[in-house]
Amino acid sequence: MESCATMFQGRVATLAPGHGDLFVLTLLGDRVLAYEPITVYDRAVRRANELAKVRSERPFTVKVLALSGREARKLLGISGGISSLAPHEYAELREQIRANCIAALETCRDPHVMADAYDVLRWLGAVQ
C-alpha cells in the first residue's frame, strides 16, 4: 500500500507560441509524447494538464514547447541525426512534418509562419 505522502502530481511547463512557430512538441522527460502543428497548441496544453493530474511515485514535468521549423529540425535531429532511424520511422517523420506544415499553411495567416512552413516543405522536397 502506498502512502499519499509519497505520491506526487506532475506539473506542466509551457513555452507559448511566438512569431514563426509552426510546431508544438509535448515532452515527458526525454520522451516525445506528441509532435503536432502549432494550430493545436491549446489542445496540447489541456492534454498536458490532464496528464499532470496523474499521481506518481516521483515528481515529473510535462513540457509543451512551441517551435519554429528550424528549431524543430534541430531539436528532433532532423538535419543529420536521422541516419539512425529505420526506413519506416524516417518515412513517418517526414510525413508528419509535411502534414504539420500543410496544416499550418491552411490555417495560419501569419506571413512569417507561412514562410517558415513553406521553407520546411521546400527542404523536404515537397514543393519546387
Provide an overview of this structure.
This protein has helices spanning 41-52, 69-75, 87-107, 111-124; strands spanning 8-9, 11-15, 21-28, 31-37, 55-56, 61-68. With 128 residues, the chain is of the alpha+beta class. The strands form two sheets. It has a four-stranded mixed beta sheet with strand order 2-6-3-4. A two-stranded antiparallel sheet has the order 1-5. Strand 3 and strand 4 (31-37) form a beta hairpin. The radius of gyration is 17 Å and the shape is globular.
Short recap of the structure:
The protein is α+β, with helices and mostly antiparallel strands.
Strand-helix topology:
Elements: E1 8-9, E2 11-15, E3 21-28, E4 31-37, H1 41-52, E5 55-56, E6 61-68, H2 69-75, H3 87-107, H4 111-124
Parallel strand pairs: 2-6
Antiparallel strand pairs: 1-5, 3-4, 3-6
Helix pairs in contact: 3-4
What is the mean pLDDT? 83
Helical percent range?
A: 40-55%
Specify the overall morphology.
globular
Indicate the low-confidence ranges by residue numbers.
Answer: none
* Beta-strand percentage range: 25-35%
User: What is the structural class?
Assistant: alpha+beta
Let me know the number of strands.
6
Euclidean distance between termini CA atoms: 61 Å
How would you sum up the major sheet? 4 strands, mixed
If you compute it from the alpha carbons, what radius of gyration comes out, rounded to the nearest whole angstrom? 17 Å
Summarize the helix and strand pattern as letters: EEEEHEEHHH
With strands numbered from the N-terminus, the spatial order across the biggest sheet is 2-6-3-4
What's the total helix number? 4
